[in-house]
Amino acid sequence: MTFWTNFQNKDGGFTLIEVLLCLIIASVLGTMMYSYFSMVVVNGVLPVARIQKSFDLNRVMENITANYYSTVKESGVPDKWQPMTSYAANTDAVVSKSQRYGHIYQCVKPGISGNSEPQWPTGAGSVIEDGEVLWKTLDGQLDGLVADISAIENEGAGKYSIAILTFIRFDDNGREYAVEPNEPENILKVRIKNEVSETLTALFTTTY
């Protein structure tokens, strides 16, 4: 006699084995459905969280750029150095005539400048002779921006870290190099990174 015949001939109700079998099948199906739908929910939330982190990183770079424009781009440019010119101590300051070094040079010993422009140093506090004049190197135009970027690391709009914060230069073929001592510090490379390893890079230049 087949199982189906036995099932039809029963007076009614289910046996304990049948009830247990149904419960086992239901629990297996429930577990499968829970796993599937929970993954759908998690995978749906992850892109939203990642977008928020990307937004926070962009907002940090926007704050850095706004700080750059307010402290650097809007600052005045001193007079350029001139040969055979009288300079007064502690009142006259110049920038390079030939290229942007990113530094201001203050006269600390008065006199007449030389015939040719000196090879300007870039180390803050260093001095150089120029005819009768002695020039002192002041802080770089971008030094304040460097300090501000370092100070707000992992703070402000979202968590981030500094991946690159250095002065660079480009050769005639467009290849990038880190600047050597006493080379112009007129291009600052900034790269910030968030906790999911997304990065943003920007270059900031001096006005003198």
Description:
The protein is an alpha+beta fold and about 210 residues long. Among the domains are: about 60-75 and about 140-205, no CATH class; about 85-140, no CATH class. The chain is about 35% helix and about 25% strand. It is built from three helices and ten strands, in the order H-H-E-E-E-E-E-E-H-E-E-E-E. The strands form three sheets. The protein has a four-stranded antiparallel beta sheet with strand order 2-3-6-5, with no helix packed on it. It has a four-stranded antiparallel beta sheet with strand order 8-7-9-10. A two-stranded antiparallel ribbon has the order 1-4. Strand 2 and strand 3 (about 105-110) form a beta hairpin. Helix 2 packs antiparallel against helix 3. The longest helix has about 60 residues, at about 15-75. Residues about 1-5 have low confidence and may be disordered. It comes from Desulfonema ishimotonii. This is Prepilin-type N-terminal cleavage/methylation domain-containing protein. Keywords: Membrane, Transmembrane, Transmembrane helix.
Protein topology:
Blueprint: H1 3-8, H2 16-73, E1 86-87, E2 93-94, E3 103-109, E4 111-112, E5 127-130, E6 133-140, H3 143-151, E7 160-170, E8 176-178, E9 187-194, E10 199-205
Antiparallel strand pairs: 1-4, 2-3, 3-6, 5-6, 7-8, 7-9, 9-10
Descriptive terms for the model:
26% strand, disordered N terminus, single chain, four-stranded antiparallel β-sheet, alpha+beta
